[in-house]
Structures are given as structure tokens and as C-alpha cells.
Amino acid sequence: MGAQASAERASAEDLFAAAYPKLAGWVRRLVDDDDTAHEIASEAFVRLLARWARLESPQSYLYMIATNLVRDHWRKAERERRAMRTVTAGAEREPVSDPAQDVDVRHLIQSLPPRLRSAFLLHYYAGFGVREIAVLLRRPEGTIKADLYHARSRLREALGASDAR
Question: Which pLDDT score, from 0 to 100, does residue 162 have?
Fold first, then answer.
């Protein structure tokens, strides 16, 4: 094994040791399932390693991969929910709590436009600063700040609408 390959491997192992627990925890908060969170975090690292040598900011790329994998998970879960609703449409409903009191945060975040959602997830769930997000998304810092403002406004508005029901 060459010196560069050995250095790259050590660097990748260091990133894994430092970032995996935080990444898995972040994904866990988004998908609400430990096994799925670890599966997504592991897959994000596998995909990162495939491009390791060509990346300037591996950690940022890692979170973008994880963000995309979480979106894929949410899409799949939504398709499954729709299929279950179709199958159980004729069944008698069980009594539940007042739906006006239930707020599905995941659904609210998914309802944001992709541009706002990416900045929001990276900032509030992954803990990246505005400057890091700007580099990661290749947009000016001012644009990221505006996206975060608009995302918060839309979520606040949605939460207000759900309280008004």
C-alpha cells in the first residue's frame, strides 16, 4: 500500500471515528429509528469513500449524502403509508387523539421546498454553521441566511395553522 493510500485510509478512519456518532444521532432524530439511522449513516460513509480522493470537504459531502438518503427514506415511508391507507380504507377506524393536536414535524420539514429544507436540516439538525452550509451548497452566506429565515417562517406559519384548527 502506497504512502498516499495509507494516509487517505487513516484520514477516512479518523473522520469515521469523529463523525459517525454525530451523524447517526442526527439521522436518528430525523427518522426516529435506531436501525434505520445506523443503516443510513453507514451507507453515507460507503458512498463517501467511493469519492474520497476527489473531495475537498468530506464531512460536508457526508452530510449531503445522508440528507439525500433521509429524503429517500421519507419518500419510501410515505409510499408505504399511502399503500396502507389504500388497503385499510374500508376498515373501521380506531379512536385516536384529536388530530388537530398532533404535529408531524417530519411532514412539516418535508413540505419545505428542497432549497429551504437542505439549509434547514444542515443547520438545525446537523449543526453546521451558515458559512459551512454556504460552502457545502455552493451558495452565498446571505442566501443561506435568507433560506433559513424563510424556512423558519414557513414552519411557524404551518404550526400556527395547525394550532388554529
Answer: 58
The set of residues, in sequence order, having a beta carbon less than 8 Å from that of 32 and lying 6+ positions away, is 106
Residues of the chain with pLDDT under 50: 97-101
Residue 56 phi, psi (nearest 5): -85, -35
Q: According to the model, what pLDDT value does residue 66 have?
A: 92
**The CATH number of domain 1-95, selected from 1.25.10, 3.40.50, 1.10.3470, 1.10.1740:** 1.10.1740
How far is 101 from 7, CA to CA, in rounded Å? 53
Q: In the chain, which ranges are continuous DSSP H helix? A: 3-31, 34-50, 58-87, 105-110, 114-120, 130-137, 141-164
How high is the pLDDT of residue 98?
A: 46
Domain at 99-165: CATH code: 1.10.10.10
Contact 134, 146 (CB under 8 A): no
d(CA 109, CA 13): 32
CA atoms within 13 A on the CB side of 164: 6
